[in-house]
Fold each of these.
Amino acid sequence: MVLLRGASGTMKSSLAYYILYENALHGAPGLYVTVEQPAGNLLDHVASLGLKPTAVSEALPVLDVSRGREHLESSASRLANLSEGRVDSSSVALRILKDKITDLQRPSGFRLLVIDSWDALGLILDFSGDRAQTFSFFDWLRDLQITSLLISEEPAADSNLSNLDEEFLADGIIHLRNVPISETSFQRRIQCLKMRGVNQNTDFRTLLFENGRFEVARAIG
């Protein structure tokens, strides 16, 4: 379970989709769950980068929660009301989402999962400040025996510890940043800050995207 973290404009979604895309091309199916932007917008964007999402549409489906977000929330609220207060709507919404992901895993056997984004999902499921819920969800992801990438905005420097629970619980953290290299130029950088069980290099590397491919190079300057 890996957090892919960065500020706006660091190509978090593009990199996450690219990872699943390349794996799908080589026979490893995946599932991309988009919570914020419609699937059509995501696919149009990656196509503009030179990728061919139609070539992997069966091996890499996109679960669009953004369009059904209101339906998910209203269904969860309705079922919670029927329970007469025994369960809350966020717990019901979480169960609906888990069931949908599990239903999609059975036929495809996907091995990689992206949730875009963790921040938006946390709002729907009301994870704010509830470490037990976050732990339970991460534990469920691990039980799927897949590699999960959770896209997340870089937290503010003054964030309290309750907003950083996912960093403590995640198996890995990858940071993306835009670093100024002159008064007018910026360079994208990538850092593997944490990877449980691996003696990884934590240096920042340059993240390049050219001709439809991401590449990582040693950072200079």
Note: The CA atoms of residues 127 and 134 lie 6 Å apart.
Amino acid sequence: MPCLTVYTDAPNYCDAAKQLAQQLNLPFLSKGTYPADDLLCLNESGLFITIQRQQIAKPFRVDFSETTLLQRAKKATPYNELIAKAIGKNNKSVLDATAGFGYDAFLLASLGYSITLVEQSLIVSALLADGLNRAKQNKTLEPIIQRMRLITNNSIDYLNTLTSKPDVIYLDPMFPVSKKTAKSKKEMQILQSLIGGSQESHLHLLLKSARQCAKNRVVVKRPRISKPLCDITPSFSFNGKAIRFDVYLHHSDKMQNTSMKQASRRGITPSHPQFSIPNPQSS
């Protein structure tokens, strides 16, 4: 994980940036010489991160108004998005236990699903919270963002506290990204530098907890050519060009046989505390 410094170049954001640094237990720097360290910067543009190493020094922030993302969300239907097919059109509530920067959750929310995003990393959660807060100010995005709720917590711990089961639990464990997608590579490099890879034992426990807590199914995002997560065979899979979604049906799911038949007909492969960015106006 990079050694980050919270920084602001905007005097009216100084108190808010100091408060954020305290929340994240990071050093704080304002004005003066622009430091060479990796930065978490807060100003009128929002919260963004700059990592000097890994050739990704260009500032990055979570942006749900990005043109490509919006165009995809606008064209998305339950029938043309692989992730929606895996989630299932009859399921309504989804818990994304590996939220990251929230783009998959945003796509699902644009399709009408109610999404709970759980993210353990305080820094990733802060970046995501800022992106959600800015998106709420956009009249086009606001109805979508209202269907997204961010929880900053360890996913396994949070799952163990649930009193009401979500229809679906979604997992997107970290995996290598294709070199062909430079933008995605940049985002994933930043995410990997902040989170790192999960150990097999943790992933096994996460998948086990998810399968116990999901009402209907668990969906796991994987590279298309890779073994199932923790070598646990899914009920069936939805295959794309570069990725696939492995679906683990709940034992009591009455729709299991129907889902398997539908998968076969469509050519699907069967397989044997909360974060808030301080507002300078309230500081």
Note: The chain has ten helices and 13 strands.
